[in-house]
Amino acid sequence: MRFPIEVILVCICWYAAYPLSCRHLEEMMKERGVSADHSTVISWTIRFLPLLENIFRIKYKRSIGRSWRIDETYIKVKGSWKYLYRAVDKEGNTIDFLLTAKRDKAAAMRFFKKAINTNDMPEKVAMDKSGANKAAIEQITKNNDTSIVVRQVKYLNNIVEKDHRAVKRITKPMLGFKSFQSAKNVLSGIELMHMIRKGQLMMEEAEKMSFAEQFYALAR
């Protein structure tokens, strides 16, 4: 924490926005006269990215549609594959995400509850042929005495499957995460930057700011 906040924000923004390793960032900052070890950079990302994502989620996230597309992608943690649940609306706006150790009904329930708590109940949900996801939605509709139209049609989920690529492109140079918690924290920043790029930050004069400036504005 001996570094200026501006230096910290630049490092964690670049890490969340571009396919760079922490060693790349160490070299890039050294060229700019800042001696920040790669271990320091990763400490900043783990500590501060989830805080900024939480500020965005609570204060600045635009409302999303009520027709959801849900899918899971793989993230490597300590040499093992874990599951990143993600959902977008029909316009491609990110609804929510959750990293889980397993892909089953319990994991799907946790994801749906998290998404519904912050975005309200969907009217329609498109998903693949996953029985666990369908069972989770059925349980949620029963618990809340409501109805959600479930559509298990593959082409409807193309939009979320393509959206995974933006996240995987950033995580690829990281060569896997060392712990589940660090993976969760860093992924929250990657998802945050992806949402900013999609225009999901609702802040005065945001349209006049660059993506990086919008990111930095969350720390004001």
Brief summary:
The protein is of the alpha/beta class and 220 residues long. Helices cover 52% and strands 15% of the residues.
Could you please describe the fold and organization of this structure?
- The protein is α/β, with parallel strands linked by helices and 220 residues long.
- It has 2 domains: 5-62 and 178-217, no CATH class; 67-167, 2-Layer Sandwich (Nucleotidyltransferase, domain 5), CATH 3.30.420.10.
- 52% of the residues lie in helices and 15% in strands.
- The chain has helices spanning 5-17, 22-31, 38-60, 105-119, 131-144, 158-171, 180-197, 211-217; strands at 67-77, 80-89, 94-100, 124-126, 149-151.
- The longest helix is centred in the N-terminal third of the chain and has 23 residues, at 38-60.
Spatial shape: globular
Largest sheet: 5 strands, mixed
Question: What is the CATH domain class of the largest domain?
Answer: Alpha Beta
Query: Domains counted in the coordinates: how many?
Result: 2
What is the CATH topology assignment of the largest domain? Nucleotidyltransferase, domain 5
State the end-to-end CA separation: 17 Å
Q: How many β strands by DSSP? A: 5
Largest sheet, spatial ordering of strands = 3-2-1-4-5
Question: CATH superfamily assignment of the largest domain?
Answer: Ribonuclease H-like superfamily/Ribonuclease H
Q: What percent of residues are in strands? A: 15-25%
What is the helix content?
Answer: 40-55%
SS class: alpha/beta
Low-confidence stretches: none
Which architecture of the largest domain per CATH?
Answer: 2-Layer Sandwich
